Amino acid sequence: MAKILDVSKIDLEGLELAIYVRRKVRTGYAILVAIVLAVVFYAAYYTNFNLVELERGSPHIWKLLGRMFPPNFEPLAEISGPLVETLQMALVGTTLPIPIAMFLAFYAATSTRRIHWLGNLVRVALNTLRTVPELLWAMILVSAVGLGTFPGTLALTLHSTGSMGKFFYETIEAVDEGILEAMKSTGANRLQIFFFGIIPTILPNIMSVVLLYWDYNNRSATVLGLVGAGGIGFLLTSAIAEFEYQQAITVLGVIVIILTIIDRTSAAARSRII
Known about the structure:
The chain is mostly helical. The protein has 2 domains: 2-49; 73-273, MetI-like fold, CATH 1.10.3720. The protein has helices spanning 2-46, 51-68, 76-95, 97-108, 116-131, 134-145, 149-173, 177-185, 190-223, 232-241, 245-273. Helix 4 runs parallel beside helix 7 (149-173) and helix 9 runs antiparallel to helix 11 (245-273).
């Protein structure tokens, strides 16, 4: 009988402990949610987030939308050229950074680099490239090489190199160390380990990231026309600047359709790779 009572006592103590822990976890979550909400409301207050003002200004939005319809389909013949330029900018701005980013990632990853300070320097360079927005890169490059698609393509290339490089070196660092040690034990050098051990392991992730940035760069390329970097964005900016709102909504509609097709294509390809 004593043993039975002891077991019951242990079970009761374990139940009380579980209830106590559960309450502590709930209290912790409640405090965390309260802190997050407080920070959000604080940020909303100091950024003048005001839905009442939005509601008051909504008539002006509807008035502007009314000036955009019906769309003017006459410039459709002129859209094809800039649209192709935009797609070409995104394609080059996505494919050209791949070998550059992979080369830099080799020196930035802690599992493949030899010189510590050089790896840190490469990381700083990649962070700088991806921190500067494509629009700012385009402004700088337009001032250097003039208007057109060339500065836009360079802007996408620079930003994508920094972003892809970060993804690549983080993916390299996530590779199982056992694979690297096994290849080292067979006498493989660093390049052989990289090309025959690391690359095949991370290739699906690399392809997924590249497709993601191809989709992203197609969207970014449409904005670069704001600073004269060519493409269909320049046509959209010109229409808005000349108050040709019916033409602008036509261009915007074409952009939405093309980007939706690219988004679905990219998503389908990524799902098959993963």
